[in-house]
Amino acid sequence: MSRRKAAVSAAVISLVSATTVAVLTSAGIAPVAAAATTTFTAVADTHVDNSAASTNYGTSGQLGVDNSPIKRTFLKFTVSGLTETVSSAKLRVHTDDVAGAESDNGGTFRSMSNTTWSETGVTWNNQPAIDGATLGSLGSVARNTWYEIDVTSYVTGNGTFSIGVTSASSNGADYDSRETGATAPQLVVTTGTTPPPSGDPVLVGAGDIATSGSADSATANLLDGISGTVFTAGDNAYPDGTASDFTNYYNPTWGRHKARTRPSPGNHDYHTPGASGYFNYFGANAGDPAKGYYSYDLGNWHVVALNSNCSAVGGCGAGSPQEQWLRADLAASTKPCTVAYWHHPRFTSGSTHGPNTAVGPLVQALYDNNADVIVAGHNHQYERFAPINPSGALDTARGIRHFVAGTGGAGLYSFGTIHPNSQARNNTTHGVLKLTLHSNSYTWEFKPVAGKTYTDSGTTSCH
Known about the structure:
Its main location: secreted. The chain is mainly β. The protein is 10% helix and 31% strand.
């Protein structure tokens, strides 16, 4: 794309995905609307340029904001289908991945009274006025990065909304338009309120999550409609787990569930020395930064988050600090059921990464203590195994059911040699794994992103 800087762009947004949760009514108690998030993407956008006053840029792949020459961007959002009060509305824009797209001033975003302008008709000479309240502004913006502006004060329900963007800097910024597809401007609208969880606890999540693409946004939308504790199975923020990777990719998507997330680290998180971006972002919820492994309880279940980046924590072998901690932790637990999660899978049919033998002693410790479920990521696909022993053989009496859920948002991988006890596989669908933790059993459900149909579910008793 050519570099074109503009200060106002216009986009009409249409519904692409929505997640809603219904809350049952008790006798004499009015129903409570659960939080629901709807994501709209641009169906029209343009910018204008005073150095080309009669030119229309409605089909351009780029939107510019600048003060020399003066360029303005116009965004138009059509919101429909909302049935509850808007509790949050966020505009998301993505800077172009070209040299010069970055700027010391990302622009000022204002509401507009004109909502009838045409994407293919607007020029500098006939541009609509940017005449409303200031909604927010962006400081320095980097190339190839998502940015978010809170527009809740303006987007209050169904209707059509126009937003203009201007810049006071002669070093303008360039954003992607709707023609780019995955990085088109987005409007993320949340309605209702989130009720406190009821019934059996839920553990939901995936691994291999946040990138510059759009699948992480789609899986985050799933989480918006599922209450409970969120887990991550490593590789939280691509490509390198830096502070900026978490800020730019994880925080605008899965980051809105940070307060209820209990993560585990992956190898990409350790591309940053000591996984400092990961530990600084999640804080106490990630455990001791020198370890990265910890445990907690949910209802009748003991939950263990382990660190399969073995070289970073003194190894995973028998007698290693982590393995010894795990055995002591499991021995001390009074819960009848146990689930563990980490990044590198002991068993997998994926062709990109083979089965990881280094975590074998951790699997053995879990098996010796009658654990029920292990969830991993690393291979970007979904796979479910039958209950198996630490050698991978079928064990219907004491075997642990393994899942690979590397479906959080990163590009999907192919399968290779299929493990004999692999029962379900899919490598075309991003989604999350939802575990409902009953008092002496569990139900698993693979939840696909909007527009996909693959599912997998079942129930198994604890040992």
